[in-house]
Amino acid sequence: MKEKIKSEWITRDKVRAYLPVFALVFVVVLFAVLTKGSTVKINNLKQIMLQSCTYIVAGLGIIFTMSLGNMDMSLDGIVGLSACLGLLATEMTNSWIMFPVIFLVAVACEMAIGGINILLGINSVIASFAVSFFGKGVAGFIIGNRTKALSLPGEFSFLYNRTGFYIITLIAISIMTVLFHYTKLGKRAMAIGSNPSAAKAAGIHVTKYKLLAYLAAGIMMGLSTLLIVLRSGSTSATTGSGFHVAVLLMMVIGGASLTGGTKEKIYSVVVGVLIYLCLENGLTVLGTSPEVIGLIEGIIFLASVTLTFDRDGVPYIL
Fold it and tell me: What are the tens digits of pLDDT across the range 206-219?
Protein backbone atom coordinates (compact mmCIF):
# COMPACT_ATOMS: atom_id res chain seq x y z
CA MET A 1 0.00 0.00 0.00
CA LYS A 2 2.81 2.37 0.95
CA GLU A 3 4.62 1.60 -2.31
CA LYS A 4 1.47 2.42 -4.29
CA ILE A 5 1.03 5.79 -2.56
CA LYS A 6 4.70 6.56 -3.09
CA SER A 7 4.51 5.78 -6.80
CA GLU A 8 1.49 8.10 -7.16
CA TRP A 9 3.45 10.95 -5.62
CA ILE A 10 6.48 10.52 -7.88
CA THR A 11 5.43 10.34 -11.52
CA ARG A 12 7.01 11.50 -14.78
CA ASP A 13 4.30 14.15 -15.17
CA LYS A 14 5.00 15.60 -11.73
CA VAL A 15 8.73 15.58 -12.33
CA ARG A 16 8.17 17.43 -15.61
CA ALA A 17 5.89 19.94 -13.88
CA TYR A 18 7.87 20.76 -10.72
CA LEU A 19 11.52 19.96 -11.41
CA PRO A 20 12.15 23.01 -13.67
CA VAL A 21 10.83 25.36 -10.99
CA PHE A 22 13.05 23.79 -8.34
CA ALA A 23 15.95 23.87 -10.81
CA LEU A 24 15.47 27.62 -11.36
CA VAL A 25 15.51 28.31 -7.62
CA PHE A 26 18.55 26.05 -7.19
CA VAL A 27 20.50 27.75 -10.01
CA VAL A 28 19.76 31.24 -8.70
CA VAL A 29 20.75 30.35 -5.12
CA LEU A 30 23.81 28.33 -6.16
CA PHE A 31 25.37 31.10 -8.25
CA ALA A 32 24.41 33.77 -5.75
CA VAL A 33 26.53 31.87 -3.21
CA LEU A 34 29.39 31.00 -5.58
CA THR A 35 29.69 34.57 -6.91
CA LYS A 36 29.17 36.15 -3.47
CA GLY A 37 26.00 37.86 -4.58
CA SER A 38 27.22 39.21 -7.93
CA THR A 39 24.55 37.40 -9.95
CA VAL A 40 21.66 38.76 -7.87
CA LYS A 41 22.67 42.40 -8.06
CA ILE A 42 19.95 44.59 -9.54
CA ASN A 43 21.87 45.55 -12.68
CA ASN A 44 22.72 41.93 -13.45
CA LEU A 45 19.12 40.80 -12.91
CA LYS A 46 17.89 43.59 -15.17
CA GLN A 47 20.24 42.41 -17.90
CA ILE A 48 19.01 38.82 -17.58
CA MET A 49 15.38 39.94 -17.71
CA LEU A 50 16.03 42.06 -20.79
CA GLN A 51 17.75 39.15 -22.54
CA SER A 52 14.87 36.86 -21.66
CA CYS A 53 12.25 38.96 -23.48
CA THR A 54 13.15 37.97 -27.05
CA TYR A 55 13.53 34.29 -26.17
CA ILE A 56 10.29 34.11 -24.18
CA VAL A 57 8.26 35.81 -26.91
CA ALA A 58 9.66 33.43 -29.56
CA GLY A 59 9.06 30.42 -27.33
CA LEU A 60 5.43 31.46 -26.74
CA GLY A 61 4.81 30.94 -30.45
CA ILE A 62 6.92 27.84 -30.93
CA ILE A 63 5.10 26.04 -28.10
CA PHE A 64 2.07 25.93 -30.42
CA THR A 65 3.92 24.11 -33.20
CA MET A 66 5.77 21.97 -30.67
CA SER A 67 2.43 20.89 -29.18
CA LEU A 68 1.63 19.44 -32.63
CA GLY A 69 4.68 17.21 -32.27
CA ASN A 70 6.50 19.33 -34.87
CA MET A 71 10.00 20.70 -34.32
CA ASP A 72 10.81 24.13 -35.78
CA MET A 73 14.46 24.64 -36.74
CA SER A 74 13.86 27.77 -38.82
CA LEU A 75 14.06 30.50 -36.17
CA ASP A 76 17.52 31.75 -37.12
CA GLY A 77 16.54 32.10 -40.77
CA ILE A 78 13.23 33.79 -39.94
CA VAL A 79 14.90 36.32 -37.63
CA GLY A 80 17.63 37.08 -40.18
CA LEU A 81 15.28 37.44 -43.16
CA SER A 82 12.50 39.41 -41.45
CA ALA A 83 14.99 41.77 -39.77
CA CYS A 84 16.83 42.32 -43.06
CA LEU A 85 13.72 42.97 -45.18
CA GLY A 86 12.12 45.10 -42.46
CA LEU A 87 15.09 47.44 -42.13
CA LEU A 88 15.59 47.50 -45.89
CA ALA A 89 11.96 48.55 -46.43
CA THR A 90 12.26 51.30 -43.83
CA GLU A 91 15.50 52.55 -45.36
CA MET A 92 13.92 52.72 -48.82
CA THR A 93 10.69 54.43 -47.73
CA ASN A 94 11.86 56.31 -44.63
CA SER A 95 8.67 55.20 -42.87
CA TRP A 96 7.31 52.85 -40.20
CA ILE A 97 6.79 50.11 -42.79
CA MET A 98 9.45 48.03 -41.00
CA PHE A 99 6.86 46.88 -38.46
CA PRO A 100 4.32 45.25 -40.81
CA VAL A 101 7.10 43.89 -43.05
CA ILE A 102 8.79 42.07 -40.16
CA PHE A 103 5.51 40.49 -39.07
CA LEU A 104 4.43 39.58 -42.61
CA VAL A 105 7.76 37.91 -43.43
CA ALA A 106 7.82 35.96 -40.16
CA VAL A 107 4.22 34.80 -40.61
CA ALA A 108 4.86 33.86 -44.26
CA CYS A 109 7.88 31.75 -43.26
CA GLU A 110 6.00 29.87 -40.54
CA MET A 111 2.97 29.34 -42.78
CA ALA A 112 5.30 28.04 -45.49
CA ILE A 113 6.61 25.41 -43.07
CA GLY A 114 3.07 24.41 -42.16
CA GLY A 115 2.02 24.29 -45.80
CA ILE A 116 4.99 22.17 -46.86
CA ASN A 117 4.37 19.79 -43.97
CA ILE A 118 0.63 19.46 -44.59
CA LEU A 119 0.32 19.64 -48.37
CA LEU A 120 3.50 17.82 -49.38
CA GLY A 121 3.71 15.51 -46.37
CA ILE A 122 7.33 16.53 -45.72
CA ASN A 123 8.62 16.20 -42.17
CA SER A 124 8.40 19.49 -40.26
CA VAL A 125 12.10 19.37 -39.34
CA ILE A 126 13.10 19.14 -43.02
CA ALA A 127 10.61 21.84 -43.99
CA SER A 128 11.81 24.21 -41.27
CA PHE A 129 15.47 23.62 -42.16
CA ALA A 130 14.63 24.49 -45.77
CA VAL A 131 13.02 27.77 -44.67
CA SER A 132 15.99 28.47 -42.42
CA PHE A 133 18.50 28.01 -45.26
CA PHE A 134 16.35 30.14 -47.55
CA GLY A 135 16.04 32.95 -45.00
CA LYS A 136 19.73 33.03 -44.15
CA GLY A 137 20.68 32.80 -47.82
CA VAL A 138 18.49 35.70 -48.94
CA ALA A 139 19.48 37.88 -45.97
CA GLY A 140 23.16 37.13 -46.53
CA PHE A 141 22.87 37.95 -50.24
CA ILE A 142 21.14 41.30 -49.60
CA ILE A 143 23.49 42.39 -46.83
CA GLY A 144 26.60 41.08 -48.58
CA ASN A 145 25.93 43.21 -51.66
CA ARG A 146 25.56 46.45 -49.72
CA THR A 147 28.17 49.12 -49.11
CA LYS A 148 26.78 50.06 -45.69
CA ALA A 149 25.13 48.22 -42.80
CA LEU A 150 21.36 47.98 -42.43
CA SER A 151 20.64 50.07 -39.35
CA LEU A 152 17.56 51.28 -37.52
CA PRO A 153 16.92 54.97 -38.33
CA GLY A 154 17.76 57.31 -35.47
CA GLU A 155 14.17 58.52 -35.11
CA PHE A 156 13.15 55.02 -33.95
CA SER A 157 15.79 54.76 -31.22
CA PHE A 158 13.31 55.95 -28.57
CA LEU A 159 11.42 52.65 -29.00
CA TYR A 160 14.21 50.78 -27.23
CA ASN A 161 13.00 50.89 -23.65
CA ARG A 162 13.55 48.26 -20.96
CA THR A 163 10.20 48.86 -19.30
CA GLY A 164 8.47 48.66 -22.67
CA PHE A 165 10.15 45.31 -23.38
CA TYR A 166 9.00 43.96 -20.01
CA ILE A 167 5.41 45.14 -20.54
CA ILE A 168 5.24 43.69 -24.07
CA THR A 169 6.58 40.35 -22.81
CA LEU A 170 4.11 40.19 -19.90
CA ILE A 171 1.20 41.00 -22.22
CA ALA A 172 2.39 38.34 -24.68
CA ILE A 173 2.63 35.75 -21.88
CA SER A 174 -0.90 36.59 -20.71
CA ILE A 175 -2.48 36.44 -24.17
CA MET A 176 -0.69 33.27 -25.27
CA THR A 177 -1.48 31.53 -21.98
CA VAL A 178 -5.19 32.13 -22.57
CA LEU A 179 -4.94 31.02 -26.21
CA PHE A 180 -2.93 27.92 -25.44
CA HIS A 181 -4.70 26.61 -22.36
CA TYR A 182 -8.25 28.01 -22.56
CA THR A 183 -9.26 28.14 -26.23
CA LYS A 184 -9.93 25.60 -28.97
CA LEU A 185 -6.70 26.53 -30.73
CA GLY A 186 -4.38 25.37 -27.95
CA LYS A 187 -6.47 22.42 -26.82
CA ARG A 188 -6.92 21.05 -30.32
CA ALA A 189 -3.29 21.60 -31.24
CA MET A 190 -2.32 19.48 -28.22
CA ALA A 191 -4.91 16.86 -29.16
CA ILE A 192 -3.43 16.66 -32.66
CA GLY A 193 0.05 16.31 -31.16
CA SER A 194 -1.10 13.48 -28.92
CA ASN A 195 -2.64 11.49 -31.77
CA PRO A 196 -3.56 13.13 -35.10
CA SER A 197 -5.59 10.11 -36.25
CA ALA A 198 -7.72 10.14 -33.09
CA ALA A 199 -8.10 13.92 -33.34
CA LYS A 200 -9.34 13.61 -36.92
CA ALA A 201 -11.73 10.82 -35.94
CA ALA A 202 -13.08 13.06 -33.16
CA GLY A 203 -14.06 15.66 -35.74
CA ILE A 204 -11.15 18.08 -35.31
CA HIS A 205 -10.19 19.89 -38.52
CA VAL A 206 -6.53 18.90 -38.34
CA THR A 207 -5.31 21.00 -41.27
CA LYS A 208 -7.07 24.14 -40.03
CA TYR A 209 -5.67 23.95 -36.51
CA LYS A 210 -2.18 23.08 -37.72
CA LEU A 211 -2.15 26.22 -39.88
CA LEU A 212 -3.53 28.32 -37.03
CA ALA A 213 -0.75 27.01 -34.78
CA TYR A 214 1.85 28.07 -37.36
CA LEU A 215 0.11 31.44 -37.66
CA ALA A 216 0.45 31.98 -33.90
CA ALA A 217 4.13 30.97 -34.12
CA GLY A 218 4.67 33.42 -36.99
CA ILE A 219 3.13 36.35 -35.12
CA MET A 220 5.27 35.69 -32.06
CA MET A 221 8.39 35.28 -34.19
CA GLY A 222 7.62 38.63 -35.79
CA LEU A 223 7.34 40.25 -32.36
CA SER A 224 10.55 38.57 -31.18
CA THR A 225 12.41 39.77 -34.30
CA LEU A 226 11.12 43.31 -33.75
CA LEU A 227 12.47 43.28 -30.18
CA ILE A 228 15.83 42.01 -31.44
CA VAL A 229 16.02 44.80 -34.05
CA LEU A 230 15.02 47.50 -31.57
CA ARG A 231 17.59 46.28 -29.08
CA SER A 232 20.51 45.84 -31.48
CA GLY A 233 19.66 48.80 -33.72
CA SER A 234 20.89 46.98 -36.84
CA THR A 235 21.08 43.65 -38.61
CA SER A 236 23.87 41.65 -40.23
CA ALA A 237 24.38 38.34 -42.03
CA THR A 238 24.73 36.63 -38.63
CA THR A 239 21.60 38.10 -37.00
CA GLY A 240 19.60 35.27 -35.46
CA SER A 241 22.48 32.81 -35.67
CA GLY A 242 21.92 29.94 -33.22
CA PHE A 243 18.54 31.34 -32.15
CA HIS A 244 16.64 28.13 -32.93
CA VAL A 245 19.05 25.99 -30.90
CA ALA A 246 18.90 28.33 -27.90
CA VAL A 247 15.08 28.50 -27.88
CA LEU A 248 14.74 24.71 -28.26
CA LEU A 249 17.24 24.11 -25.46
CA MET A 250 15.49 26.59 -23.19
CA MET A 251 12.06 25.08 -23.76
CA VAL A 252 13.23 21.51 -23.14
CA ILE A 253 15.05 22.58 -19.96
CA GLY A 254 11.76 24.17 -18.88
CA GLY A 255 9.95 20.85 -19.26
CA ALA A 256 8.50 21.09 -22.79
CA SER A 257 8.21 17.74 -24.56
CA LEU A 258 9.73 17.23 -28.01
CA THR A 259 6.85 14.88 -28.85
CA GLY A 260 4.15 17.48 -28.19
CA GLY A 261 0.68 16.61 -26.93
CA THR A 262 -1.37 17.62 -23.90
CA LYS A 263 1.61 17.83 -21.53
CA GLU A 264 2.94 21.08 -23.01
CA LYS A 265 2.71 24.12 -20.73
CA ILE A 266 3.30 27.83 -21.33
CA TYR A 267 5.26 28.16 -18.10
CA SER A 268 7.84 25.74 -19.54
CA VAL A 269 8.88 28.54 -21.89
CA VAL A 270 9.29 31.18 -19.17
CA VAL A 271 10.99 28.93 -16.62
CA GLY A 272 13.26 27.34 -19.23
CA VAL A 273 14.47 30.69 -20.55
CA LEU A 274 15.24 31.94 -17.04
CA ILE A 275 17.09 28.72 -16.06
CA TYR A 276 19.22 28.88 -19.20
CA LEU A 277 20.10 32.57 -18.87
CA CYS A 278 20.77 32.39 -15.12
CA LEU A 279 22.98 29.33 -15.65
CA GLU A 280 24.92 30.92 -18.52
CA ASN A 281 25.25 34.22 -16.65
CA GLY A 282 26.46 32.53 -13.48
CA LEU A 283 29.06 30.44 -15.30
CA THR A 284 30.27 33.51 -17.19
CA VAL A 285 30.64 35.53 -14.00
CA LEU A 286 32.70 32.66 -12.54
CA GLY A 287 35.02 32.88 -15.56
CA THR A 288 34.04 29.56 -17.14
CA SER A 289 35.22 29.13 -20.73
CA PRO A 290 32.58 29.07 -23.52
CA GLU A 291 33.58 25.48 -24.38
CA VAL A 292 32.85 24.27 -20.85
CA ILE A 293 29.59 26.24 -20.74
CA GLY A 294 28.53 24.52 -23.98
CA LEU A 295 29.41 21.12 -22.54
CA ILE A 296 27.38 21.76 -19.38
CA GLU A 297 24.40 22.99 -21.42
CA GLY A 298 24.62 19.87 -23.60
CA ILE A 299 24.54 17.57 -20.57
CA ILE A 300 21.58 19.44 -19.10
CA PHE A 301 19.76 19.26 -22.45
CA LEU A 302 20.27 15.48 -22.63
CA ALA A 303 19.07 15.04 -19.05
CA SER A 304 16.00 17.22 -19.73
CA VAL A 305 15.07 15.26 -22.85
CA THR A 306 15.45 11.98 -20.95
CA LEU A 307 13.03 13.19 -18.28
CA THR A 308 10.44 14.77 -20.59
CA PHE A 309 10.52 12.59 -23.72
CA ASP A 310 7.16 10.90 -24.24
CA ARG A 311 8.15 7.59 -25.75
CA ASP A 312 4.51 6.62 -26.30
CA GLY A 313 4.10 9.68 -28.56
CA VAL A 314 7.05 8.90 -30.81
CA PRO A 315 4.98 7.23 -33.55
CA TYR A 316 2.96 10.42 -33.96
CA ILE A 317 5.79 12.90 -34.54
CA LEU A 318 5.10 14.53 -37.92
Answer: 999 999 999 999 99
Q: 227 is in which domain, residue-wise?
A: 41-309
The reply to whether 229 falls in a domain is yes
Report the distance separating Cα 307 and Cα 315, nearest Å: 18
Number of domains in the chain: 1
What's the rounded Cα separation, in Å, for the pair 210 and 64? 9
Residue 277: partners with Cβ closer than 8 Å, 6 or more residues away: 48, 51, 52, 55
Residues belonging to the chain: 318
- The answer to whether 251 and 272 have CB atoms below 8 angstroms apart is yes
Q: Write down the pLDDT at residue 9.
A: 58
Domain assignment of residue 10, yes or no: no
Residue 6 lies in a domain: no
- By the 10 Å C-beta count (0-12 exposed, 13-18 middle, 19+ buried), 148 is classed as exposed
pLDDT tens for 156-214 read 878 888 999 999 999 999 999 999 999 999 999 999 988 888 888 888 999 999 999 99
pLDDT at 317: 40
